[in-house]
TrEMBL record:
It comes from the Bacteria. This is DUF465 domain-containing protein. Residues 31-73 form a coiled coil. Keywords: Coiled coil.
């Protein structure tokens, strides 16, 4: 997956993990599924917010909370993967 194709908002939320996000999207089905769910919620929320009738909408607030939960989970996975990658690189024979 090209970095340019990834959700721009998500890239701005986690700029330090942009490359790792691309790697995980290709190699980790769970991460890819969560990323897609987050993007789908983001698109749905954006469509609802464009309609003034939906500005005061309980469902919109529920969707926003769901999206935030996905963001938190994605961040946790990114931190874990970044730690794993930095630890495995530090212990690899090529780094000695």
């Amino acid at each position: 997956m090209n970095i340019k194709l990834m959700n721009k908002k998500l890239k701005h939320m986690f700029p330090e993990y942009t490359e790792l996000m691309v790697i995980l999207k290709q190699s980790d089905p769970h991460f890819a599924k969560m990323l897609e769910a987050h993007d789908e919620l983001d698109r749905k929320i954006t469509r609802l917010e464009l309609n003034p009738v939906n500005v005061i909408n309980d469902n919109l607030e529920i969707l926003k909370r769901q999206k935030l939960k996905y963001k938190d989970r994605l961040y946790a996975l990114l931190r874990k993967a970044a730690h794993y990658h930095s630890t495995s690189l530090a212990h690899s024979p090529s780094s000695e």
